[in-house]
Q: What sequence folds into this?
């Protein structure tokens, strides 16, 4: 399955409602956004990774993610879709491409195609210093696609650039970051809390890991905040080593517990073997 029906939202499934983290007030929430310059942690190296996605321990979809540099920009390519019996009930495929600036880790463009039996939806977003412009085309609609603009005085991230910028930070226990994220259709205030450093065991082995919780509030058209109706709580685990790769996501949502978990990873430009899951942490 694809969280929100897109690869981008697969990664956004890590949404937690932390009792110890107060929700930003509906008014004046803009002041809670964290100024987040690029951190000192080294950039990720090119990689190709595969993930399983599903709910209630049932694998419902698979996806492949490729990260590299293209024409001087960081590029994320993600392709996936439902499989097995789930596909007989719900045929879904997604293709996602996102570009980010290498120096600043700011988002540049986002292109996504969502394909179901009934229709194809294409989303294109262009990120600017003070906002984002999005165009969405629906194959079943006879109307000409119109641009939608979201303006905000602080930085706005897509999920690719948000992960890159957060990954560059120190990520000490208890660190809290609040970012405005635009996955492709609407804006959200994301509150990210580093809740601990401890090992996690997944399909590819046991890794030293950084445990991260995240809370989302939707930004309405009039600039107010509203709770997310579908997500309840979730956790992300990122490897605590020089790669800081996404290992696992768990989220409790309206249909049960959904997950994404790393199944394989390789580094095309590195002739050395894949790092051992038991390698030491990054010292954060």
A:
């Amino acid at each position: 399955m694809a969280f929100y029906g897109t690869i981008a939202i697969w990664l956004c499934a890590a949404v937690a409602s932390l009792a110890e983290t107060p929700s930003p007030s509906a008014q004046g929430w803009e002041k809670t956004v964290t100024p987040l310059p690029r951190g000192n942690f080294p950039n990720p190296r090119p990689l190709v990774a595969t993930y399983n996605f599903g709910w209630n321990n049932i694998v419902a979809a698979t996806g492949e993610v490729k990260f590299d540099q293209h024409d001087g920009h960081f590029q994320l390519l993600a392709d996936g879709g439902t499989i097995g019996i789930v596909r007989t009930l719900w045929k879904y495929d997604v293709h996602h491409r996102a570009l980010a600036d290498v120096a600043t880790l700011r988002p540049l463009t986002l292109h996504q195609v969502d394909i179901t039996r009934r229709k194809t939806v294409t989303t294109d977003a262009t990120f600017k210093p003070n906002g984002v412009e999005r165009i969405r085309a629906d194959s079943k609609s006879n109307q000409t696609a119109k641009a939608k603009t979201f303006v905000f005085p602080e930085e706005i991230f897509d999920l690719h650039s948000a992960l890159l910028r957060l990954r560059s930070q120190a990520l000490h226990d208890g660190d809290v970051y609040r970012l405005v994220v635009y996955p492709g259709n609407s804006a959200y205030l994301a509150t990210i809390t580093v809740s601990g450093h401890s090992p996690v065991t997944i399909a590819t082995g046991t890794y030293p890991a950084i445990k991260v919780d995240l809370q989302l509030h939707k930004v309405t058209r009039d600039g107010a905040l509203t709770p997310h109706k579908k997500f309840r709580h979730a956790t992300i685990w990122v490897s605590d080593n020089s790669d800081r790769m996404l290992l696992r996501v768990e989220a409790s949502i309206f249909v049960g517990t959904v997950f994404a978990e790393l199944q394989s990873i390789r580094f095309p430009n590195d002739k050395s073997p894949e790092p051992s899951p038991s390698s030491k942490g990054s010292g954060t």
Observations:
- The chain has a mean pLDDT of 85.
- Helices lie at 7-11, 84-89, 159-167.
